[in-house]
Amino acid sequence: MDAVSQLQRQFVEHATSLYREGYLDDQFTQLLKLQDESNPDFVVEVVSLFFEDSEKLLNSLATALQQESIDYKQVDAHVHQFKGSSSSIGAQRVKNVCVVFRNYCDEKNLDGCLVCLEQAKNEYLLVRNKLEALFNLEQQILQAGGSVPMMA
Predict the structure, then answer these.
(1) Is 102 within 8 Å of 117 (Cβ atoms)?
(2) Each residue of 33-58: pLDDT tens digit?
(3) Sign of CA dihedral 73, 74, 77, 82
(4) Through-space distance between the first and last CA atoms of the chain, rounded to whole angstroms
(5) Angle formed by the axes of helices 72-89 and 92-107, to 10°?
(6) Which residues pair with 36 in a beta bridge?
(7) CA gap 15, 82 in Å, rounded
(8) Smallest Cα–Cα separation from 127: which of 92, 83, 85, 151?
(9) In the chain, what is the greatest distance between 2 CA atoms, to the nearest angstrom?
(10) I need a surface site. Which of 2, 22, 78, 87 has the fewest CB within 10 A?
């Protein structure tokens, strides 16, 4: 098996595992369908924006939950935004944590919010690392002169 074929197989296996393990849902597939020759970096650009926004939102959430008097409406607004952005790229496990997080905001449950913040950070870091690995494989395939297998 040549290097390109091996990289393509790794790419397909990694991508498949992201769906199977619930990191990504069909929304990511929809994003992939929007990418074409005229905009070959579309998905990487959209996901990179998600990474930037997520870092800011997680920091804002941490700060908001450390205040002496917590504004749960503000916390909920941040969580709602994080849920929306994670949903838009298909980051299913992040989105699912945000659903629970918002319930704790409604209940003004600080302990629940803090647990969810840690879970959201962890799920975000996991999906970020896994997507970065996927994009890295994609680049290796292209640099080796191969074509990236379709995932749909």
Answers:
(1) no
(2) 998 888 889 999 999 999 999 999 99
(3) negative
(4) 24
(5) 160
(6) 39
(7) 23
(8) 92
(9) 61
(10) 2
Residues 6+ positions from 16 with CB-CB distance below 8 Å: 151
Residue 66 identity (one-letter amino acid):
Q
Dihedral Cα 116, 23, 77, 73, nearest 10 deg: -20
The residue among 133, 132, 95 whose CA lies nearest residue 116 is 95
Residue closest to 12 by CA, chosen among 124, 20, 52, 48: 20
Q: Where are the alpha helices (DSSP H) in the chain?
A: 3-20, 26-34, 42-64, 72-89, 92-107, 110-143
Q: What is the mean pLDDT of residues 46-75?
A: 97
For residue 118, the model assigns a pLDDT of 98
Cα 102 to Cα 97: distance, rounded to the nearest angstrom: 9
Tens digits of residue pLDDT in 123-152: 999 999 999 999 999 999 999 999 988 875
